[in-house]
Amino acid sequence: MIAATQIRKRFGLHPALDAVSLAVEPGQCLALLGPNGAGKTTLLRVLATLLRPTAGALRLAGVDALRDPEAARARIGLVGHGSQVYEDLTALENLRFWTAMRGADASRPRLLAALAQVELDAVADERTRTLSAGMKRRLGLARLALAEPEILLLDEPYTGLDQRGRKWLAEFLSGRKAAGRALVVATHSFADALAIADRVGILAGGRLVLDRPSAELTADGLFRLYGELTGAEVEAA
After folding, report:
1. Quick check: 85 and 127 in contact, CB under 8 A?
2. Alpha-carbon distance 227 to 235, whole Å?
3. In this model, does residue 185 exceed pLDDT 90?
């Protein structure tokens, strides 16, 4: 589903990604760990076709993403940093706008059903600026429930989520894996990485220094490897 080969990305003289290769199969989740500045967000943006790599090859759901990024983008769902909502619109209006932009069914019953999945149907007509940070994050995640992309790319998806949001997200991602979707999740949380991922990757200095099945890793072992491979202080899960 995702095949990245020798991906390099430079910003001026700075190598943000250095010969990164990875493959994610349908129904599989890759969790990316790494210190700040390791290249996690840059890699996700390349996979999302928002950044063009300096060199390398990228295929997404069978599409050459460098030759036809628009076709590849139609198969991708990206949740980046922050809630990415329009504060002056209601929760329902946010979903209607996002869905209409994709050319999909933006009927009120369908949008309300998506809000119900993240337990926000009771505030459907409330201005988004009145919602808590956790509720805004859940609203952003409701986009995934509507879009049903073949590939899901998530950058620190648990950040700012309340307990209900974390529970919904874990169940949703498990369901997407069962439906044959491919997932890449960048996170600082070792516990979340081991809980959801089939494979765990570690980025350091723009290089993928570890890519291993999560079943082969314990929490203590992952802490040790992370410290050894990145030279960074291990953060709390």
Report:
1. no
2. 10
3. yes
Residues 16 and 7: beta-carbon distance below 8 Å: no
Whether the full predicted model's pTM is greater than 0.85, yes or no, is yes
Q: How much is the pLDDT for 81?
A: 73
* The pLDDT of residue 237: 45
Q: What sections of 30-90 are H helices per DSSP?
A: 40-47, 69-73
Distance of alpha carbon 146 from alpha carbon 141, whole angstroms = 9
DSSP class of residue 236 equals P
Question: Residue 106 contacts by C-beta under 8 Å, 6 or more apart in sequence?
Answer: 95, 96, 99, 100
Classify residue 127 by its DSSP letter: B
Helices (H), 68-127: 69-73, 91-101, 108-117
Which tokens in the block code for residue 232? 């960074």
Confidence of residue 102 (pLDDT cuts 50, 70, 90): confident
Name the residue with tokens 């809000």. 115
Of all residues in the chain, the percent with pLDDT exceeding 70 is 97
> Residues 6 or more apart from 135 whose CB is under 8 A from it?
120, 123, 162, 165
